[in-house]
Design brief:
CATH architecture of the largest domain: 3-Layer(aba) Sandwich
CATH class of the largest domain: Alpha Beta
Number of helices: 8
Helix content: 25-40%
Strand content: 15-25%
Order of helices and strands: EHEHEHEHEHEEEEHHHEE
Radius of gyration: 19 Å
CATH topology of the largest domain: Rossmann fold
Largest sheet: 5 strands, parallel
CATH superfamily of the largest domain: Response regulator
Shape: elongated
Length: 226
């Protein structure tokens, strides 16, 4: 089970990550609100732990953007304030539960287990960009109704880009999300896989969807890109 922790307090984040990994959760960590948004739309997560007080974008903004963009992953919000109005605000913005700091790590685990039990059994498994469609449950891809055969790693790369649709994704993020490893600047692995995907996805008669920006990364988008 994969969790995203969005927390800027490093000591608190380390303690939570250690406890979560002891329970065999895979944990990714983002230090600010925008980084959390980028991560959430780059990879599939089973649950997001979201602090309210964050740099760049606070937890309220982050939660609101998640729901506005259709992300249905359960969100557990963390805050130093136990005020009723803050709890109501978080729930109204789409959070699924709320935990006030300081809290016992055992309670955190119990809240996570409860949210997992409440997670909807049926979720929209389709991602559509222009005429491209991915089914994340069956891990299949089609364009204009025509099935496209991909290797497991090609599919993982395409889903990574699709979950971050319209967002330029750097090589570090792609390498971590798809290969579970730090980016190697001396390797052309990502470039080769992008080349393979383009041959299969951006076929003649269809709008190009996969774009590169020199030294910055790659983006999957149906919008005009320069």
């Amino acid at each position: 089970m994969r969790l995203l922790l969005i927390e800027d307090e490093e000591a608190a984040a380390r303690a939570m990550e250690k406890a979560l990994r002891r329970e065999n959760y895979r944990v990714d960590h983002a230090l600010d609100g925008q980084a959390g948004i980028d991560a959430a739309f780059s990879s599939p997560y089973d649950l997001i732990i979201l602090d309210v007080r964050l740099p760049v974008k606070d937890g309220w903004e982050v939660c609101s953007e998640f729901r506005a963009r259709g992300l249905q992953v359960p969100v557990l919000m963390l805050t130093a304030s136990g005020a009723t109005e803050d709890r109501i605000k978080g729930l109204d913005l789409g959070a699924d539960d709320y935990l006030t700091k300081p809290f016992d790590l055992g309670e955190l685990m119990a809240r996570i287990r409860a949210l997992m039990r409440r997670k909807p059994l049926i979720e929209d498994s389709n991602i559509r960009i222009d005429t491209l469609e991915l089914n994340t449950r069956s891990r299949t891809v089609s364009r204009s109704g025509n099935f496209i055969r991909l290797t497991a790693k090609e599919y993982a790369l395409l889903e990574c880009l699709a979950r971050g649709v319209d967002t330029l994704m750097n090589r570090d993020t792609i390498s971590e999300r798809v290969w579970d490893a730090p980016y190697d600047p001396f390797s052309n692995l990502i470039e080769e896989y992008i080349k393979r995907l383009r041959k299969k996805i951006d076929i003649e008669g269809e709008k190009p969807l996969i774009h590169a920006r020199r030294r910055e990364g790659y983006i999957l988008t149906a919008k005009k890109f320069a």
